[in-house]
Specification:
Blueprint lengths: L6 H10 L3 E5 L3 H9 L4 E4 L3 H4 L11 H13 L5 E5 L9 H13 L5 E5 L5 H8 L5 E6 L5 H4 L9 H17 L3 E5 L3 H10 L4 E4 L7 E4 L1 H4 L17 H17 L11
Parallel strand pairs: 1-2, 1-8, 2-3, 3-4, 4-5, 5-6, 6-7, 7-8
């Protein structure tokens, strides 16, 4: 068994030029499979609201739901670092509530770190959480919890003023103590500039090849979510057809009296 990864290992990977592979997981079976094949980081994303619960956005996801899914993922993990998303309204109200909710994801969920969205506007919150020895991943650019302000899922940082703000956001979250930074939906050139400007690892999603690592949603890369097909997603397998075929075969055999056979009976 490999030694479990820590936040120190993830930071060392940037220093040594080793790319960081990150995927989302929301349950025990997926976490176990990706952990066994060597994923570096598992993100228990609030994207669970869209790809598992069927919501149109991530906004309805609750703390209790995140604790539940984090606990399930941790049970399937031996080697990967598990990071849990802080859902909408779990950290925006005040730093005290943010600390309590971050603590829940570690104490009740078993996560080794938490992730929250925002830059300069959440720097003090990041600082408060880090001060209680809970590692934090920051997230800037296209931040899904800000969908209403952004007017949808739009690429951020195309305009010079936006780009300058994102660079300032990256420096602010690093200074506040975040150990890694997700860059979502920003031009590749800007992601390259941010990656060079900060000492913490950058994890890209729709942010080009020059980030220190990449993250995608597991349901997207396996063809299990038909609601969205972002440009930045690469489909590595299409298991929806396999699943549908298996279910169809089961229905046919039940209807035709072929299942269960003698070998499935006592």
């Amino acid at each position: 068994m490999n030694k479990p990864k820590t936040v120190i290992d993830i930071q060392r990977m940037k220093a040594e030029g080793e790319k960081i592979a990150v995927l989302t997981a929301y349950d025990y079976p997926f976490a176990r499979l990706m952990d066994q094949v060597g994923i570096d980081v598992i993100l228990v994303g609030d994207s669970v609201g869209s790809v598992v619960s069927g919501y149109e956005t991530t906004l309805p996801v609750t703390m209790d739901e995140m604790v539940y899914h984090t606990r399930a993922v941790v049970r399937g993990t031996r080697n990967a670092l598990v990071v849990a998303d802080m859902p909408f309204l779990s950290y925006q109200v005040d730093p005290v509530e943010a600390r309590r909710n971050a603590g829940r994801l570690v104490k009740e969920g078993g996560a080794q770190a938490v992730k929250l969205e925002g830059g300069e506007n959440v720097a003090e919150t990041i600082r408060a959480i880090v001060a209680m020895d809970v590692p934090v991943v920051a997230h800037i650019g296209l931040t899904p919890q800000s969908i209403h302000r952004m007017g949808g899922y739009r690429v951020q940082g195309k305009q010079e003023e936006q780009a300058r703000q994102l660079l300032a956001d990256a420096r602010a979250v690093e200074e506040a103590g975040a150990f890694a930074l997700v860059l979502e939906g920003i031009p590749a050139a800007l992601a390259r500039e941010i990656t060079a400007a900060v000492s913490i690892p950058t994890i890209g999603i729709g942010a080009g090849i020059d980030c220190d690592g990449q993250v995608l949603v597991i349901h997207d890369i396996l063809g299990l979510c038909e609601k969205y097909s972002p440009k930045f997603v690469k489909r590595y397998a299409d298991v929806s057809g396999t699943i549908s075929g298996g279910i169809s075969d089961y229905i046919r055999e039940v209807k035709g009296g072929q299942f269960p056979g003698e070998e499935h009976s006592f």
